[in-house]
Design a protein that fits this description.
- Keywords: ATP-binding, NAD, Nucleotide-binding, Nucleotidyltransferase, Pyridine nucleotide biosynthesis, Transferase.
- GO terms for molecular function: ATP binding; nicotinamide-nucleotide adenylyltransferase activity; nicotinate-nucleotide adenylyltransferase activity.
- Pfam families: CTP_transf_like.
- This is Nicotinamide-nucleotide adenylyltransferase.
- Belongs to the eukaryotic NMN adenylyltransferase family.
- By secondary structure, the protein is of the alpha/beta class.
- Among the domains are: about 10-115 and about 140-215, 3-Layer(aba) Sandwich (Rossmann fold); about 215-260, no CATH class.
- Helix content is about 40%, strand content about 15%.
- The protein has 14 helices and 8 strands.
- A 6-stranded parallel beta sheet has the order 3-2-1-4-5-6. Strands 7-8 form a two-stranded antiparallel sheet.
- Strand 2, helix 3 (about 70-80) and strand 3 (about 85-90) form a beta-alpha-beta unit.
- Helix 3 (about 70-80) runs antiparallel to helix 11 (about 235-245).
- It is globular and about 50 Å long.
- It starts with a helix and ends with a helix.
- The structure holds adenosine-5'-triphosphate and nicotinate mononucleotide.
- The site of nicotinate mononucleotide (NCN) has 17 residues, from strand 1, helix 4 and helix 14.
Length: about 350
């Protein structure tokens, strides 16, 4: 019987999942997205999930609270250390400019296709990118790369001027979306109200997260900025990295001169692309994850402060006026200038997109 199940699993279509976002900092919920999605496909017996990829956005995305990519990559590496199948792709952060998500998907999909179809000796040469799942050449059938996201990212498709319609269409038509529910979002209704999404809804998998957790990066940054505890909201290794680097304007009683110098060592290791460090304790184990896919182009200033005006992390949908109509996703601030804050962010994104279009 178990032989039969194994054989059946072997024949399932293969998919890989890629999550694009800021990850500033990565939270356990970012990783839960992958676990929830993999369970969904495998328990239903519809697909084999061969790998998970986290692709942090480029520094020039310019979102408020975006720590330098060298730090975001380092934190992601720490966060996925105990995962056997989720990996960092630092391709996006090493591009000369911000990349649209459609191009990020295309790049990784092309790489997967080429890798499966042209057996070479890259393994021996150590040329493979760190995000590439292991064992892909055991089979020759294609791997379909799907965009994994929370429902709020899906709903950001309707922010006027933010995403290009042709990109949305290419993403859903050529790749597919795996959407995890998030409090305050209604992805079923959102899809119904969008003609493009409805057209390709067979390529959209909506998954209910029955154990929701509204931790978000912005909430974590806010607590850190106030000097409040975020322990148990973040992986301990990620938290100790933040404290040590003084990220997010952290007002921490834990940063001391005794620990400060360590981050210099850490960063040197990261810059050296040292793949072979073997360390055992928590602090040292940060070096284990220092394998960048490609050499860093530039050194980033080490101490980063990104104090933010406090804001609630609730995402509300405003201006929803009818099927296919634009929906604005606004992050509402505690009292006064919350919508200004969100509008500023939206403006920053629009400017970024306009710049990219001009290039
Ligand atoms: N608590 C959560 N539940 C479901 N999805 C989430 C959750 N937190 C983040 N995500 C998803 O993770 C992906 C990457 O998130 P990203 O880092 O850009 O956002 P975030 O954690 O919401 O950060 P911020 O608070 O700065 O907006 C997005 O698809 C987002 O929807
Ligand atoms: O491709 C686009 O047009 C596009 C427009 C807006 C946002 N994105 C991506 O969406 C991800 C989440 O962004 P955000 O601002 O919701 O945290 C991040 O990886 C961005 O690069 C992508």
């Amino acid at each position: 019987m178990s032989g039969f199940i194994e054989e059946k699993t072997c024949m399932l279509p293969r998919i890989a999942l890629i999550a694009c976002g800021c990850f500033s900092p990565p939270t356990p919920m970012h990783l839960r997205l992958f676990e929830i999605a993999r369970d969904y496909f495998e328990l239903r017996g519809t697909h084999k999930v061969v790998g998970g990829i986290i692709s942090p956005t480029h520094d020039s995305y310019g979102k408020k609270g975006l720590a330098p990519s060298i730090d975001r990559c380092a934190m992601i590496k720490l966060a996925v250390q105990t995962s056997t199948w989720i990996r960092l792709s630092d391709w996006e952060v090493h591009q000369p400019q911000w990349m649209r998500t459609q191009s990020v998907l295309q790049h990784h999909q092309n790489y997967l296709n080429n890798y499966i179809n042209s057996p070479g000796d890259e393994e021996q040469n150590g040329l493979l990118p760190g995000w590439l799942p292991l064992g892909l050449r055991e089979r020759r059938d294609p791997i379909s790369l799907k965009l994994l996201c929370g429902a709020d990212l899906l709903e950001s498709f309707a922010v006027p001027g933010l995403w290009a319609n042709e990109d949305i269409e290419e993403i859903v038509a050529n790749h597919g979306l795996v959407v995890i529910s998030r409090c305050g979002s209604n992805p079923e209704k959102f899809i119904f109200e969008s003609d493009i999404l409805t057209k390709y809804q067979r390529n959209i998998t909506l998954i209910t997260n029955w154990v929701p957790n509204e931790v978000s990066s912005s909430l974590v940054r806010r607590l850190l900025n106030r000097g409040e505890s975020v322990k148990y909201l973040l992986d301990d290794l990620v938290l100790s990295y933040i404290n040590r680097q003084g990220l997010y304007n952290v007002k921490s009683k834990y940063i001391t001169d005794a620990v400060r110098p360590n981050h210099l060592n850490f960063n040197r290791v990261y810059m050296d692309n040292n793949k072979n460090s073997v360390k055992l304790d928590n602090d040292q184990s940060e070096q284990l994850m220092d394998e960048s896919d490609s050499p860093l182009r530039q050194q980033t200033t080490r101490v980063f402060c990104c104090g933010e005006t406090p804001r609630a992390n609730t995402k509300l949908l405003l201006n929803r006026s009818g099927p296919g109509q634009a929906v604005q996703v606004i992050t509402v601030q505690a009292k006064d200038n919350g919508s200004n804050d969100a509008l500023e962010q939206t403006q920053a994104k629009k400017q970024k997109i306009a710049q990219v279009q001009q290039v």
